[in-house]
């Protein structure tokens, strides 16, 4: 009875008030190379976030205006300097202005220029007085005392004003951003009211009946977490949706800035999935849960990927612990200043391979020398599960391994990593596609750190296919960066939105805002480059995006648009080899998958493309981990005209080919329905027994034609109704009505 009562309300989850207003870009010119389209909320483990119609908020029907209004979003464009800043440049400039500073792990520490020196410098005048943090990679700064933040250019402007006016400090209000519109102010006020309403309605666990409190803990797998720990971290229960409420308190005045809600949802399979929602929206939710409980003198912290894991670590070990706001998806650089005080950071983001990979990436931002990782090779679960199993969490944290590695290692250092890959083969294979199951059978998954070369005939739909290919992964939480040099971002976004909605939105404009709001929740970003570009500028932008948004998939469309800007050699093939080598190095060093579109050589219309058809030298196919070819039979109009061939797969060697069908209304490619054309794996190139796609389809078409001819010539029997006979092609290409019983 109690279980049914609990699950009855678990499918209702917070949906922040729907936005029915698209955004126009800011009106002043900015030297940006990235356009931030959206930020995706972190998806918790085993969670499939449901969709709630616009206007539905906590079971209430909110009025939705049919009038489309527009506002500019100051955060939709990412400032990217034309000449990337370096830490050497930052230090030289600070010295020229007589600004004292000292080196931190990921930031430079300096006295705040937004506080009077008599106020900001305590009696001990030590390094603790350096409350302004300047990011070594981007130059972004943050004053922890006043919460003033801005770009490196903003800080330079402030220092120039101070020097010109002869001032010792500036007012925190000196940096005026874009004036907020009435709609933006109303949205913020509504979010704040919603935060206060939910928080005031939430109930502390100590006020719940014991039976109800234990049931809630069981549903969220926190049965071993005591009420004292929940009270210490101010965790509450919001009864209308049966959600745990995790607060976000400001470090300056302990005011409530936001909340995160974690809900349990019963699935048809009988399992329980966990979904979460944030107020304010994810792009503005920068809460390190547990940070207010960290003392100024604490030098060690355990970084987790879930709030419940932080509860478990704190209770079991007594160590300071904080949770990332979006788990393994991203570590926003805006949070780095709050982690500068710690000399040792232990990353325990979870017990799976994805958490392990994220830990290694995040440790680069935090500083490898001070980071240690809890390895998953020994089947270490996440902290809350380890606590439930009765494990010794303190011992696990103590046994964590250093993140920094030597240039030469022995198998002893690699032994646990190898075991982890053997024990987690499915996770090591990467993220699976949902729209292309045949691709999973051949490539096994999409993995970080690889280079994929994709080619196909001109006009065959390379960009359209690869946009759906990337969209599929992006919908599963893969942070994606698009570099489209051939078509502009508006047209590309239109294609992807149509593929996302699976319908022609031109004919359903009343649904545009609904689909656009959902599309906006994907971790998708676009470069603003268009036309021919210099490879250095593109690589700098990619590196910048990886640092800021933890991008794990970059699509470059296409290689030829970067070759015209290079002056390394008159030999265009040497230029291409240089560019491919640069992308290969970036993919490996940044642990980021790069998909590179390359046009093929000109071939006859009746000839299929091979790996050797890729434009340039053999370096493209040699450096690539995967080679995908979109095959097209231009002289054929029947189904099966297009197909995708995996010509190289370095992960496990499987190659193959499968047909695609193009839906013009939704601009999507998909495999034909089961029973038409089956997947056929082929041997690698150079094999004597290799069967090309054309030969395969010709054989199948010939078989179908023969089957039809036999059926037409065979006279019907009047005395006995024949049974349906399936063709050797298993119904491939069989027209409607064929194979049924005849009277």
TrEMBL record:
<feature type="compositionally biased region" description="Basic and acidic residues">
    <location>
        <begin position="696"/>
        <end position="716"/>
    </location>
</feature>
<dbReference type="InterPro" id="IPR027417">
    <property type="entry name" value="P-loop_NTPase"/>
</dbReference>
<dbReference type="GO" id="GO:0008289">
    <property type="term" value="F:lipid binding"/>
</dbReference>
<keyword id="KW-0496">Mitochondrion</keyword>
<feature type="region of interest" description="Disordered">
    <location>
        <begin position="683"/>
        <end position="743"/>
    </location>
</feature>
<keyword id="KW-0347">Helicase</keyword>
<protein>
    <recommendedName>
        <fullName>Twinkle mtDNA helicase</fullName>
        <ecNumber>5.6.2.3</ecNumber>
    </recommendedName>
</protein>
<keyword id="KW-0999">Mitochondrion inner membrane</keyword>
<keyword id="KW-0378">Hydrolase</keyword>
<dbReference type="GO" id="GO:0006264">
    <property type="term" value="P:mitochondrial DNA replication"/>
</dbReference>
<keyword id="KW-1135">Mitochondrion nucleoid</keyword>
<dbReference type="GO" id="GO:0042645">
    <property type="term" value="C:mitochondrial nucleoid"/>
</dbReference>
<dbReference type="InterPro" id="IPR027032">
    <property type="entry name" value="Twinkle-like"/>
</dbReference>
<keyword id="KW-0547">Nucleotide-binding</keyword>
<dbReference type="GO" id="GO:0043139">
    <property type="term" value="F:5'-3' DNA helicase activity"/>
</dbReference>
<keyword id="KW-0067">ATP-binding</keyword>
<dbReference type="GO" id="GO:0005524">
    <property type="term" value="F:ATP binding"/>
</dbReference>
<dbReference type="GO" id="GO:0016787">
    <property type="term" value="F:hydrolase activity"/>
</dbReference>
<keyword id="KW-0235">DNA replication</keyword>
<keyword id="KW-0809">Transit peptide</keyword>
<keyword id="KW-0413">Isomerase</keyword>
<dbReference type="GO" id="GO:0005743">
    <property type="term" value="C:mitochondrial inner membrane"/>
</dbReference>
<keyword id="KW-0472">Membrane</keyword>
<feature type="domain" description="SF4 helicase">
    <location>
        <begin position="425"/>
        <end position="676"/>
    </location>
</feature>
<dbReference type="Pfam" id="PF13481">
    <property type="entry name" value="AAA_25"/>
</dbReference>
<dbReference type="InterPro" id="IPR034154">
    <property type="entry name" value="TOPRIM_DnaG/twinkle"/>
</dbReference>
<feature type="signal peptide">
    <location>
        <begin position="1"/>
        <end position="18"/>
    </location>
</feature>
<dbReference type="GO" id="GO:0003697">
    <property type="term" value="F:single-stranded DNA binding"/>
</dbReference>
<comment type="function">
    <text>Mitochondrial helicase involved in mtDNA replication and repair. Might have a role in mtDNA repair. Has DNA strand separation activity needed to form a processive replication fork for leading strand synthesis which is catalyzed by the formation of a replisome complex with POLG and mtSDB. Preferentially unwinds DNA substrates with pre-existing 5'-and 3'- single-stranded tails but is also active on a 5'- flap substrate. Can dissociate the invading strand of immobile or mobile D-loop DNA structures irrespective of the single strand polarity of the third strand.</text>
</comment>
<keyword id="KW-0446">Lipid-binding</keyword>
<dbReference type="InterPro" id="IPR007694">
    <property type="entry name" value="DNA_helicase_DnaB-like_C"/>
</dbReference>
<keyword id="KW-0732">Signal</keyword>
